[in-house]
Amino acid sequence: MNFIDGSLHVENMQDLVITCAPYGPEWMPSDFPEDIPVSMEAQIQKAVDCYNAGASVLHLHVREENGHGSKRLSKFNELLAGIRARCPDMILQVGGSISFAPETEGETAKWLSDDTRHMLAELTPRPDQVTIAINSNQMNVVEQMVPADVRGTSLDVGTPGYHAYREMTIPAGPAWVEEHIKRLSANKIQTHFQLATISQLETVERMMRRGVCNVPLILTWVAIGGGFDAPNIYNLANFVRACPDGSVLTMETSMLNTLPLNMMGMAMGLHVRCGIEDNIWTQDRSRKMSTVEQIEQLVRISRELGRPIADGKKAREIYKIGTFYGSADETLAKNGFAPNRKPGQKGFTQYVA
């Protein structure tokens, strides 16, 4: 992304899109009973509360009545239908992992089979987005956490839950990724890229150059360590610089890193994500902080910066919901990448009038 003069002036920025992740599949309800919805009605109401607080994108996972993460697509359909009826403009983003939480002690936290994940393209009603990881990778979500982050929870250091998430990996090989994007696009569901490193962004670019990924580059930089980038200013600057100007970039990290990284993103004209899936604490850890409180905090800060908050309709425009491209050339141009090299062409490639 090119930061020319005026790029840090709010009048030149998009309205802020706030993504909320209020379902926290890694936690058990006993970890934060005041804010982890379990019944279907409570899960629907949580989305409504988040939308009313200022979030225009909902990152969605589903729980069963026993509090465990659901792996039943029928439950996803039920939740999607309930939220769509109550918040028709909200962007519904299904977490592509489905539920990676271990069901019993001693199990590893893992994503479901390739075939099951492909079925996310068949959800009814259709979500606006499904998140996708690129390149199989370690996803040790507890690596950069400190003991105070998980003390007294089901992820406390030394517990089976801690060990399960420490050993988690992402299955996202090239054949599966290409097929998944193909199926999502065929059903008019937008792919939302959850990227850990620049190398994964480069893989997406190569797919676009080959014409197997003709979609807008709507992505999140997931800086959580454990196989992903660490949330520091150097990694952030490098990743932002690698993103083309036509992409739409959201910040994501975990625990007490969440607010500082989001503040950087807001000031830079990028977009933000919050919620108990990412963090459950106030910055001084004096108490746990609900997803709605986290949204309200970001709204206050953004207003202090003078940056408006995107409502559902504006967020759909910014995220290019419903947009798909017909060729590699169009995809590269719309996303802001340099064009493919033509046969015999020498030197660097560029678009000319």
UniProtKB/TrEMBL annotation:
<dbReference type="InterPro" id="IPR008567">
    <property type="entry name" value="BKACE"/>
</dbReference>
<dbReference type="GO" id="GO:0046872">
    <property type="term" value="F:metal ion binding"/>
</dbReference>
<dbReference type="Pfam" id="PF05853">
    <property type="entry name" value="BKACE"/>
</dbReference>
<dbReference type="InterPro" id="IPR013785">
    <property type="entry name" value="Aldolase_TIM"/>
</dbReference>
<keyword id="KW-0808">Transferase</keyword>
<keyword id="KW-0479">Metal-binding</keyword>
<keyword id="KW-0862">Zinc</keyword>
<dbReference type="GO" id="GO:0043720">
    <property type="term" value="F:3-keto-5-aminohexanoate cleavage activity"/>
</dbReference>
<protein>
    <recommendedName>
        <fullName>3-keto-5-aminohexanoate cleavage protein</fullName>
    </recommendedName>
</protein>
